[in-house]
Design brief:
- 45% of the residues lie in helices and 21% in strands.
- It is built from 14 helices and 10 strands.
- It is elongated and about 65 Å long.
- The structure holds S-adenosylmethionine (SAM).
């Protein structure tokens, strides 16, 4: 399944594309590589240029052919156009699906994988740069989209209903200003406060440095995996939509959890407000609950409970409680 299932097509898939257009589109090795790469995620033109080390004019020619054939769709988000694989439909649907299945039978080339990694790093750097530039104004912007009190209350309720006297270890991924840390510190012998951004971690320390059982770590879940850290519970509130590879964070969180451990995720539901990319540093326009559940299932996390908060300013929050099998 395409990673960005929430992206809505502006250009209708070419359901009426004639057979010759479809076959022409599938007759070029580079176009097959493009379709293979777009099975992983949706990418902007400039990101695709990075992955394929091509100039935009050369790439645009191929993208147009794939769109005409109904194999790709595109959507304008903020100032960029993002491409993803279109859902096959119409009289040629079966053939389209067969073509895509054949394409996916061959793994992505090593050079394309390296290109995707470069794009993921760029996206991560953009996220760090956003929080560096906005660390002090971050709360104001965030409150417009997702009021902290609402989802943090649910997070704590979900932890409390587990009837555990105290957790040995809780990890909070993406602590931001660290507002939740005092509540987590009351519920665990040790809390690890993780954030990719040094600037946000500095603010979190100002807020929670006095708590003796909180350790601050700069980085993401991979850092704790390398340290063989084990946790009873992990909380990630409003983090996944800022991270280039949410699926990887879920998989790493599952590695960190003890068997039966709990993972609580507060996230935006899939939305259509592209301005959040520029103004709030969002890399993803929320997620469908199904998408989160698929990634969680792949990481051997099973869904335990879901809470959906009322929609506010066009955004809805979901709080999902997963448990490690
Ligand atoms: C929107 S803020 C949320 C902060 C806090 N959890 C809250 O609910 O207020 C997202 C935070 O996650 C951090 N972040 C983004 N991706 C991350 C990752 N992969 N690992 C750790 N922190 C990350 C950002 O630096 C930022 O501080």
């Amino acid at each position: 399944m395409a990673a960005s299932a929430h992206i809505v097509d502006l250009v209708p898939a070419g359901s009426g594309a004639p057979l010759a257009t479809l076959l022409k589109a599938a007759s070029d090795e580079l176009r097959l590589h493009i379709l293979r790469v777009l099975a992983q995620d949706s990418f902007s033109v400039s990101e695709l240029c990075t992955i394929f080390e091509l100039r935009q004019s050369a790439l645009s020619h191929h993208l147009k052919i794939l769109i005409d054939a109904g194999l790709l769709s595109r959507r304008k988000e903020g100032t960029a156009i993002f491409y993803r694989r279109a859902l096959a439909e119409g009289p040629l649907q079966e053939l389209q699906e067969q073509i895509l299945r054949h394409i996916d039978d061959t793994p992505i080339t090593r050079s394309n994988s390296r290109g995707i990694e470069r794009v993921q790093r760029q996206r991560e750097d953009n996220s760090i740069a956003f929080f560096k530039g906005n660390a002090d104004r971050f709360r104001e912007q965030q409150e417009l989209i997702a009021p902290w009190a609402d989802y943090s209350e649910i997070t704590l309720q979900l932890l409390d209903r587990l009837e555990q006297d105290a957790f040995e270890s809780i990890v909070e991924v993406g602590v931001g200003e660290g507002w939740l840390l005092p509540d987590l510190a009351k519920r665990a012998r040790s809390v690890t406060a993780l954030d990719l951004s040094q600037d946000m971690l500095r603010l979190a320390k100002q807020h929670a440095n006095h708590l003796p059982n909180v350790a601050f770590v700069q980085g993401s879940t991979d850092v704790l995996v390398q340290r063989d850290h084990q946790a009873d519970a992990i909380v990630a509130n409003m983090v996944l939509h800022h991270t280039p590879e949410p699926k990887k964070v879920l998989a790493e969180a599952a590695c960190l959890l003890k068997p039966g451990g709990h993972f609580i995720v507060s996230e935006l539901c899939a939305h259509d407000q592209a301005w959040a990319r520029e103004h709030c540093g969002d890399l993803w326009l929320g997620f469908t609950p199904e998408q989160l559940d698929i990634w969680a299932g792949q990481a051997r996390l099973s869904l335990n409970a879901s809470v959906f908060l009322a929609q506010r300013n066009g955004f809805q929050i979901q709080v999902q409680h997963f448990q490690r099998c």
